[in-house]
Write a structure and sequence with these properties.
The structure is a homodimer. By secondary structure, chain A is of the alpha/beta class. Chain A has two domains: 5-131 and 285-297, 2-keto-3-deoxy-galactonokinase, substrate binding domain (Nucleotidyltransferase, domain 5); 162-281, 2-Layer Sandwich (Nucleotidyltransferase, domain 5), CATH 3.30.420.310. Chain A is 35% helix and 22% strand. Chain A has helices at 43-52, 84-89, 120-130, 132-136, 165-175, 189-201, 213-220, 228-246, 263-273, 286-297; strands spanning 5-10, 15-20, 26-32, 60-63, 78-79, 92-95, 101-104, 108-110, 115-117, 137-142, 147-153, 156-163, 255-258, 278-281. In chain A, helix 5 runs antiparallel to helix 8 (228-246) and helix 8 crosses helix 9 (263-273). The relative contact order of chain A is 0.15.
Chain lengths: 307, 307
């Protein structure tokens, strides 16, 4: 089967490669440990060569931190509001050491805050293509180290915001007095939901006004030391949801789609229920689909069937 | 001159000793590096012996982490509301290896949150004795790693709350992406006030919804990398003030007294002005005065002049 495009999802800690047919179906995929912080000897060029090795010389499109200041080539952010066509117009082309042409997707910048993303814009394009209702008028949540809340109207990304929930959880657990001298963590759903409720009930003060309770509840004997991480997780995820409502990024009866899967997304679903919010799982494979959609909009591939 | 009392301010990282005359005047003071985390060989007994060495065998009173779970002897917290007499009634006496009697001041617990303090209760007693108006109806701020906001009515500590401002600043600066790869910090008052204003203007969402801006403003070129720490400092101190107002710990026309001095307190004063709040410096030497007042209330010393 003919290869019409290669896509790379190239972040800080991962490099995933996709080989597409003429209809955008992924024929083959590879996962390499060469995120931009973990490059092999030979650097970006060597990692790239491994990712596309033995695949035909077709256009290559890449998103993620590869286009950041610490990446292979810095690609300026594109300001919101923007849609897939503006993203496609803003690709930066470069020639790789092995003579291929690599097109880098720009990250997005919301100038009103300001806020930035790099890599997630491609996931958003993928979801928007797969879920027309969300693209028309929706809110997307991409949970993680730096969670993103994205607003869409009529196919346009109108704005977005970052909450550092995952990173803050790690800091508090690994480096703060709240996480000091704890026994190995156990799963404690009750503690998790207590944390969520503490964030919700903190109102306009917010969870930073309550975070010390992770220690005082433990000293009090009402929170087992091994459950402190789940309490903190609930407090911070709950605060992210509280912030989203207080900021108008989401409203209680919105149908919010969440990109991702696994235990972290399950936590968000359970926390959202305490706010009368419903989070729905978006289809997976959003990045590979987004890369394809941007490449098509840029005219890198023909969507006509080829012989 | 006769010695009537010895007082110890014994925290995690410091040990200060005071020798008092019959009127509560400090005749002599010592500072030792032997906080409970930095004990000399011989442990608590050896540190104690150094602190009181060659001083007369009079009652000794101590406050701070020496009475915590990791201290010399754990002293249970006393619940608010409480006043100096209840604190004095709750002293725990122990005999030291050199045969002296040591009275440990309990920490306080606000059961409504719950929240705890250990050491600050003695500072509060000292300020309340020196500032009768504040004791009658006031709000005290003790800024630091774990800032405390304390409410006083008719001489009674009615409640308090902790905000981990100082610790969170350290975590973000030392361990987060926001502080990564920054040049040596410079003093930047403009950046500090921008951070304060960002927290103030975050409204009910709070500064956690804006903290990523420390990175995006830098990437944008509008915040010099060396000024990121001052911006973060402003954002977190500003958020503490925002929280205090949102929680009703303070109201805009309150006269709030702040215990402490130096650059950190100066930052709070400048940040408070952006909220139309006035922070006044409380008299210093509050801990030594508080120890004296609790000892007097406990009957450990006579305030009669002696021959």
């Amino acid at each position: 089967m003919n290869t019409h495009l290669i896509g790379l999802d190239w972040g800080s800690t991962h490099l995933r490669a996709y080989r597409y047919d003429s209809q955008g179906q992924v024929l083959d995929k590879r996962a390499l440990p060469h995120g931009i912080r973990q490059l092999p000897e030979g650097g970006f060029g060597a990692a790239f060569a491994l990712a596309v090795e033995a695949w035909p010389d077709v256009p290559v499109i890449a998103c993620g931190m590869v286009g950041s200041r610490n990446g292979w080539r810095e690609v300026p952010y594109l300001d919101t509001p923007t849609d897939v066509d503006r993203l496609a117009d803003a690709l930066t082309a470069m020639t790789t050491p092995d003579g291929r042409t690599l097109h880098l997707v720009p990250g997005l910048r919301d100038p009103s805050r300001p806020d930035v993303m790099r890599g997630e814009e491609t996931q958003v394009v993928g979801v928007a293509a797969l879920l027309p209702d969300v693209a028309r008028h929706g809110c997307l949540l991409l949970p993680g180290t730096h969670s993103k809340w994205v607003s869409l109207r009529d196919g346009v990304v109108t704005g977005f915001a970052t909450v550092m929930t995952g990173e803050l959880f790690g800091l508090l657990k690994e480096h703060s007095i709240l996480g000091a001298q704890l026994p190995p963590a156990i799963d404690d759903e009750h503690a998790f939901l207590c944390g969520v409720d503490a964030a919700r009930d903190s109102g306009a003060a917010g969870a930073l006004s309550r975070v010390f309770s992770a220690r005082t509840l433990m000293l009090d004997g009402s929170l087992p030391p091994a459950s402190v991480p789940d309490y903190l997780s609930g407090l911070l995820i709950g605060d992210e949801l509280r912030i989203a409502l207080a900021s108008g990024w989401a409203t209680p009866h919105d149908s919010i789609h969440m990109v991702g899967e696994g235990p972290l997304c399950d936590r968000y679903v359970r926390a959202a229920a305490r706010f009368d919010l419903t989070l729905r799982a978006a289809p997976d494979a959003t990045t590979s689909h987004g890369l394809w959609r941007i490449a098509v909009a840029a005219g890198l591939v023909s969507t006509q069937a080829t012989a």
